[in-house]
Amino acid sequence: MTHLIILPVVLPALLGPITLLFFRAHPAAQRAMGLGGTAALLALALALWPIATDGPQLYRLGDWPAPFGIVLVLDRLAALMLILTAFLALAVQIYVLGTGWDRKGRHFHALFLFQLMGLNGAFLTGDAFNLFVFFEVLLIASYGLMVHGGGTNRIRAGVQYVTYNLVGSSLFLIGLATVYGMTGTLNMADLGQRIAALPDGDMALTRVAAVLLLLVFAIKGALVPLHLWLPNTYALAPGPVAALFAVMTKVGAYATLRLGSVMLPKGTTELLFGTLLAPAGMLTLIIGALGVLGAKGLARQAAFAAVASMGTVFIGLSALDPAVTAATLYYMIHSTLAGALLFLITDQVQTLRNSDDLTQARPPLPGTLAALFFVAAIATAGMPPLSGFLGKLLILQSLPVWPVWTTILLGSLLLMLGLARSGSLLFWKGYEIAAQPTGQIPPLARFALVALILSLVALTLFAGQIHPALQQIAQDLHDPIAYVQANDLPAMGAKP
Amino acid sequence: MELYLATAIGLLTAVGTYLLLRGRSFPVILGLTLISYAVNLFIFASGGLRLSAPPILQSGVTTYTDPVPQALVLTAIVISFAMTAVITILALGAWLGAGHDRVDMSEGDEP
Fold this sequence. Notes:
The complex is a heterodimer. Chain A is mainly alpha-helical.
């Protein structure tokens, strides 16, 4: 048992309050805490990867044994999500420092650190109720970040966002209480064993609880028809915050994976994913793509692109096949980075044009921004040569059924059309006004954008090295014996 | 006792859902509060209902009630209380900024 496992939660939990209490009047120190903390989290996540490859590692909080105490479990999937979160957060943090977004309101860095604490905790925990608590931690930080900088419409969208998520939290609690009432445990691995051992008469109750939990994770993952909170929230949140939120929808996908893999018995998972998740995922992709085509503003377009990418992810997850899951994980990494890139570029476009409306003619934008948008659009639509194409290709190759092929290909076409339209409106129509290109991208912000693009390039170039690791993760998920054994549960039989 | 509690939970949820679907922020927040009450009662009941039994496990004691849901419900109460405070402040800010407290927005609204 190494104490390194708890650090991704404890470190931001310490740095956040310190930033809040002692550096209230020192913006430079706040920035140092934010940047230093995020960089340390990335280093930590990278250090945890080799530990995770030795097999799932258990961390008992307060040294209480598994079904009674809360445990953290570090497996490959958790470590991968930690690395992804920390890398994205670092890029966003650098962008924020470059553009001065953190000065537009108070306590940006403290909230940012709390958000990372919630995300890391949600990825690490092996206890279903603890997952709820970390969801709340990341949500309450996200409420603060979402309304950062103020503005009436942003706060009004914030009210909607908070309301939606409070309802989601209530559903989560009802689901957890149902599960606890049936099994008397909340440890994920223990839940899996006990639910599988329930008598057939409790089948209906199991399904109700499973659907409730899936509903909650679908809200987080913006699955149609529960996606309604996302477009407004992401479009009206500050650009860098929306970019960080790109990983938040993935928390929904991650929790869905854990639910299907560890907590539910195979038969229930197959029924649930096959009848609910697969059609909903296809609908999500199409509605997201149509939203991209119809959006009037670039921010809303980027938000709908995030919905569409979640559609592809959920289609892949619902197949319950190791090869498809590995492909989906690859696409998930890609879509997180590409989504964040698009949101950051949207923020630049909004700043330089002073408007989000695509149809309004404004003086031309700098050529570098046009080039960056072009790359982001290619990545988002999933066109070659970037990793989005590889991800979609892997999913299509491992899932050769016509509804999936039709949906994904049609979705890609719609995405491409929508992004091409906004690209030409934004970067070509400006030249109808005789004026010099306005403004420049701040150097640090440009560095963050280029770093995100380079990460996508690396994801493409090293796909041959990354994909086997993802296949290993998928294999672990489909056969979670090691995960369950790591929890060191007492033998079944003695009822608690 | 089970019937009373189940009826209370159902009633709270129904009223809460109705209020949640109103168009103004005050009833919406009230609805959220009622739903959170219903959820708290539901969690409390998930360990089984027992009269006059302490939630303490000791060797030799046979009448006790499950302590875990009581710990869970405490967490849930604290969180829902804090969230209600957050959304009240946000709703107040939205009302002061917009001049009305309608929850829905139209698509043209920009930051």
